[in-house]
């Protein structure tokens, strides 16, 4: 938040205090630059906010960043919008440029978590070149390793109550009555992305495009394989062990 748009006198003192305390707590944390890689449903989304808060990192989700750059009409955002309007993919160079821009933010001082990027080896190489130009590099690549069959059970079992966003799982967190929301009694739905057919095509794309990225970083010796089939608390414990 830039002081030009916000007068510090107007910021509630609790917010100022909590931000000061956060900065004091963060100042002693070592810098970390992490990439999270894993197929859909492997638990990256559950772990990344925990890692972000624990190590004072900024969370760079490239999809959100692209949308934000387009909305803010930054020079890169305008270019990205041109590509999107034509129905083209946004170029790797543009995405790396948007990441480069984001790294200037104070919240990224201690490092970052990259999620959803790089998806291809070419993207990984471009990212490395950009980080080298900043005098840094990726420290660790957390690979959320999990069997496709477990993912299928995890994902195709998910059901949502659309109005509240409450989610259930036929095996792990079933509703009291099948297909019915516990609170309102309204029917549950399955997200379009959560069907076996969609999952199969997303997994195929993941294996084809992104597994080579894991090999690329493994050659540099900075990949850590996490047991992503374990319950979330166990994965968090494993992450903390790896990053301590």
Automatic annotation (TrEMBL):
<comment type="subunit">
    <text>Monomer.</text>
</comment>
<keyword id="KW-0808">Transferase</keyword>
<dbReference type="GO" id="GO:0005737">
    <property type="term" value="C:cytoplasm"/>
</dbReference>
<dbReference type="Pfam" id="PF00406">
    <property type="entry name" value="ADK"/>
</dbReference>
<dbReference type="GO" id="GO:0005524">
    <property type="term" value="F:ATP binding"/>
</dbReference>
<comment type="similarity">
    <text>Belongs to the adenylate kinase family.</text>
</comment>
<keyword id="KW-0547">Nucleotide-binding</keyword>
<dbReference type="InterPro" id="IPR033690">
    <property type="entry name" value="Adenylat_kinase_CS"/>
</dbReference>
<protein>
    <recommendedName>
        <fullName>adenylate kinase</fullName>
        <ecNumber>2.7.4.3</ecNumber>
    </recommendedName>
</protein>
<dbReference type="InterPro" id="IPR027417">
    <property type="entry name" value="P-loop_NTPase"/>
</dbReference>
<dbReference type="GO" id="GO:0004017">
    <property type="term" value="F:AMP kinase activity"/>
</dbReference>
<dbReference type="InterPro" id="IPR006259">
    <property type="entry name" value="Adenyl_kin_sub"/>
</dbReference>
<dbReference type="GO" id="GO:0005739">
    <property type="term" value="C:mitochondrion"/>
</dbReference>
<dbReference type="InterPro" id="IPR007862">
    <property type="entry name" value="Adenylate_kinase_lid-dom"/>
</dbReference>
<dbReference type="InterPro" id="IPR000850">
    <property type="entry name" value="Adenylat/UMP-CMP_kin"/>
</dbReference>
<comment type="function">
    <text>Catalyzes the reversible transfer of the terminal phosphate group between ATP and AMP. Plays an important role in cellular energy homeostasis and in adenine nucleotide metabolism.</text>
</comment>
<feature type="domain" description="Adenylate kinase active site lid">
    <location>
        <begin position="158"/>
        <end position="193"/>
    </location>
</feature>
<dbReference type="Pfam" id="PF05191">
    <property type="entry name" value="ADK_lid"/>
</dbReference>
<keyword id="KW-0418">Kinase</keyword>
């Amino acid at each position: 938040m830039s002081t030009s748009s916000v007068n510090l006198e107007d910021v509630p003192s609790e917010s100022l205090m909590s931000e000061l305390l956060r900065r004091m707590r963060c100042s002693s944390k070592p810098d970390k630059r992490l990439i999270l890689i894993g197929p859909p449903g492997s638990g990256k989304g559950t772990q990344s906010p925990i890692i972000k808060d624990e190590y004072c990192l900024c969370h760079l989700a490239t999809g959100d960043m692209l949308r934000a750059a387009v909305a803010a009409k930054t020079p890169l955002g305008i270019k990205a919008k041109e590509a999107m309007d034509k129905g083209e993919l946004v170029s790797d160079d543009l995405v790396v440029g948007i990441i480069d821009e984001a790294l200037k933010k104070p919240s990224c001082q201690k490092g970052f978590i990259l999620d959803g990027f790089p998806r291809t080896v070419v993207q990984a190489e471009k990212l490395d070149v950009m980080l080298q130009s900043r005098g840094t590099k990726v420290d660790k690549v957390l690979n959320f390793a999990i069997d496709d069959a477990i993912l299928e059970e995890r994902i195709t079992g998910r059901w949502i109550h659309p109005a509240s966003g409450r989610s259930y799982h036929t095996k792990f967190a079933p509703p009291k009555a099948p297909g019915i929301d516990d609170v309102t009694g309204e029917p549950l739905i399955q997200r379009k992305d959560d069907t076996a057919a969609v999952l199969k095509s997303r997994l195929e794309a993941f294996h084809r495009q992104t597994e080579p990225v894991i090999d690329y970083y493994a050659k540099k010796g900075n990949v850590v394989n996490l047991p992503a089939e374990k319950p979330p608390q166990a994965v968090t414990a494993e992450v903390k062990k790896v990053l301590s």
